[in-house]
Here is the input.
Amino acid sequence: MSAKIIDGAQLAMDIRRDLSRRVESLEAASGVTPGLAVVLVGDDPASRVYVANKTRACKAVGIRSVLHRLDADVEQDSIIAIIKALNEDPSVHGILVQLPLPPWIQSRPVLEAISVEKDVDGFHLYNVGGLVLGDAIFSPCTPYGVVKLLESVGISVDGQNVVIVGASNIVGKPMAHMLMTRDATVAICHAKTRDLAQFTILADILVVAAGVPNLILPQMVKTGAVVIDVGINRMADGRLVGDVDFEALVKKASYITPVPGGVGPMTVTMLLENTYLSALRSQGALVNRAGNAASGDEAFYASGR
Ligand code: NAP
Here is the structure.
């Protein structure tokens, strides 16, 4: 068996092409350009690269992005004051605080300062609660990207056994809620899970987000399973790899995502989607809570605005 590769880079490109058309239409109809404000605290090199990618991606689809770079020793209250000003700014539709923040800054109060309507990362407690109830205002970008990847190849999770390896607040936990909402049977594993393989072997769909190269070996996976590798690990020789043994699993899985070129490009794409969605909502468009921008677009343009 040779798995079909789910090409996240191609899907991301297709979605972004379509998104730039929708951004143009929104501007033509309402004069509004979607705007994303990015708050970057400190000098973490990885964060700088991620932020540069996000702002470049915004520009490519016509979303206006503004970067607020703050020194690592900035007071927490000053960060919150900037966020509050951005909450009031009608040209800003999405606010993103790049994580991790320096360890002496508490991330929760900072994230809670973001207006729920502009929380395009989906990390505000209100959005987290909405996700648990299956009624999120914004879906967190990485799990949202995984859902889109599965949809793109026609894989329904309804009634499937999904095993998620990794239980972080930004990937594993929201992923579990999004898939439960879509009627999957979900198990979540983490670093303290005893005998990981006894869970992974049951997966029809295996989502791995642990940050451990080669964590998932072929004997841990059922023949024909769908394998989604969220992990991104930089090896000593400079190579970027995921969490699964791709070379071996490509011979055993039915579908698999590569690293790079799988989930990664989708994460930024869903951030762009959420920012556009927020701009659309700011114009009073009827957009459903699950982030179904397409139906929202139709309602918006049909309303003649
Ligand atoms: P994280 O906050 O470090 O969480 C890692 C999770 O994996 C934790 O729940 C941890 O368990 C679990 N884990 C660690 N070692 C494990 C093991 N040996 N067996 C089973 N579970 C294990 O990381 P994250 O932010 O979720 O990111 C996870 C990976 O995804 C990283 O490689 C990251 O770079 C990547 N990532 C990729 C994207 C993308 O766009 N492709 C986006 C975000 C993250 P405990 O909870 O017990 O500690």
